[in-house]
Amino acid sequence: MRVFKFGGASVKDAEGIKNVYDVLQKVGYEDVLLVVSAMGKTTNALEVVIKDYFDKSSALQSSVQEVKKYHNQILLDLFEDDSNAVFTAVKAQFSDLDYFLAHNKSPNYDFVYDQVVSYGELISTTILAHFMNHMDIKTQWIDVRNFIKTDSNYRDATVDWDLTHKNISKNVKRKTLNITQGFLGSDENNFTTTLGREGSDYTAAIFAYCLNADSVTIWKDVPGVMNADPRYFENASLLNQISYREAIELAFYGATVIHPKTLQPLQRKEIPLYVKSFINPLLKGTSVSRGVNLEPYLPCFIVKRNQLLISLSSIDFSFIMEENISEIFSLFHEFKLKVNLIQNTAISFSVCVEDKFYNFNELNAILSKKFKVDYSQNVTLYTIRHFNDSAAQTVENGKKVILKQISTETMQIVTSEN
Ligand code: ADP
Ligand code: ASP
Ligand code: MG
Q1: How would you label 291-312 residue by residue, b for 16+ Cβ within 10 Å and e otherwise?
Q2: Which ligand has the minimum distance to the alpha carbon of residue 10?
Q3: Which pLDDT belongs to residue 397?
Q4: Hey, which residues does 137 pair with through a beta bridge?
Q5: Which domains does the chain have, with CATH numbers?
Q6: Using a 6 Å cutoff on CB, does residue 8 contact ligand 1?
Q7: Which ligand is nearest to the CA of 11?
Q8: Which atom of ligand 1 is nearest to the CA of 6?
Q9: What's the confidence (pLDDT) of residue 418?
Q10: For a disulfide at 14, which of 52, 77, 112, 361, Cβ 3.0-4.6 Å?
Q11: 200 CB near ligand 2 (under 6 Å)
């Protein structure tokens, strides 16, 4: 069996959905499981709905309406006949969403978040499955929440592998085209959970692992994994093959082309991962497998913007040692600041962090009681795997370098743009 994952960009409009059909025609669809994300930027649009809901904003009506209008337009573009059952099916899903927003009593933001954003994937897969049937491809629509079981850590749920493995290996039909939702799961009480933003790649890996699949293919708007994000680097080149280890390192340092959790389950069973273009599906793209050399051997660049560089030094010139460091780290954890780089000297300690939830001011107040705190906002963290002098120059050119760290294979540079 093969597992294919189609992300938001691949199904962002009617053309995208038709293209999925074309891709399947070209590469085959018997004995395939499709994992599909919400269409385009639907998850972001549903995040606005959730914000309006909690703010009790009068904009709630219109933010919901926007999501409905977007999907309705795609339906009208795909199906000439608006008596097609898909119109009723999608309407029913939106009615469920309306019902939830009108009757929910839970004040738990993360719980509400998962119940609401899940409609993105539920609706995209409904539309895609109906379109395939319309084009005479028989499909099996699967509600992923009956298969992937998780704990109740809403928005970042942990998979219960035993239960999930049992459900998937027993109940997924072979020799057909299965279509299911990425990113979602459900907890013990059957409430919807999600696996973290961009988690659909991970869903594909979970299914592949439990089905002992032959391969996973992630279909992208780029030719494959490149040695840099082509949005930021004009001369980015395609990597034909990389090892799991390399892919894990790239994803860990922030290459957004593969979700970091995706690689481990595949590596464990040595299931090959292909990253391919949904625009040119017959091109080879990137193959990720065990122990192969990076080919071509090139420096790989990863950029993380909007970072915060914090330097702590002791007020009394005492050393910053294990005890202090563990306290500092537990504070970062508590305030949900993600640490991307660490450097320490005898009396100072620097970290480059991401403050996604805007908690730094609060944390700073606590840290300042014990340490002298200096910080630079809005810095950029560059990571170069397999660096060389010219790669470093490319990054440093015209920028102010404020920190640099080198290990055998990896160079990290923090810059503030001039
Ligand atoms: P999906 O639709 O599957 O969610 P994403 O938009 O999350 O796809 O991922 C594809 C994007 O990842 C590309 O458009 C590209 O800009 C970005 N990207 C970041 N790093 C890389 C890389 N090293 N190689 C290729 N693409 C990359
Ligand atoms: N729709 C979810 C998101 O945008 C999951 C995914 O696309 O992978 O984060
Ligand atoms: Mg994505």
Answers
A1: eeebeeebbbbbbbeebbbbbb
A2: 1
A3: 92
A4: none
A5: 2-220 (3.40.1160.10), 300-417 (3.30.2130.10)
A6: yes
A7: 1
A8: 3
A9: 57
A10: 77
A11: yes
Taking CA atoms only, the protein residue closest to ligand 1 atom 4 is: 7
Write the pLDDT tens digit of every residue in 159-202.
999 999 999 999 999 999 999 999 999 999 999 999 999 999 99
Looking at residue 410, its amino acid is: T
Find the ligand nearest to 5 CA.
1
Strand pairing class (215-220; 273-277): parallel
Order of strands across the sheet with 241-243?
A: 139-142, 177-181, 32-36, 2-6, 215-220, 273-277, 286-289, 241-243
The answer to which of 79-83, 88-92, 149-153, 311-315 has the lowest mean pLDDT is: 79-83
Q: Which residues pair with 184 in a beta bridge?
A: 194
Using CA atoms, how far apart are residues 172 and 182, in angstroms rounded to an integer? 15
Ligand 2 and 197: CB distance under 6 A: yes
- Find out whether the beta carbon of 49 lies less than 6 Å from any atom of ligand 2: no
**Whole-Å CA distances, 196 to 54, 158, 184, 247, 389:** 20, 10, 9, 19, 37
Q: Is 225 in the pocket of ligand 1 (CB under 6 A)?
A: yes
pTM over 0.90: yes
| Environment of ion ligand 3 (residues, CB < 5 A) | 7, 198
Backbone angles phi, psi at 232, to 5 degrees: -110, -20
Instruction: Confirm or reject: Cβ of 256 under 6 Å from ligand 1.
Output: yes
Q: How many CB atoms lie within 10 A of CB 39?
A: 26
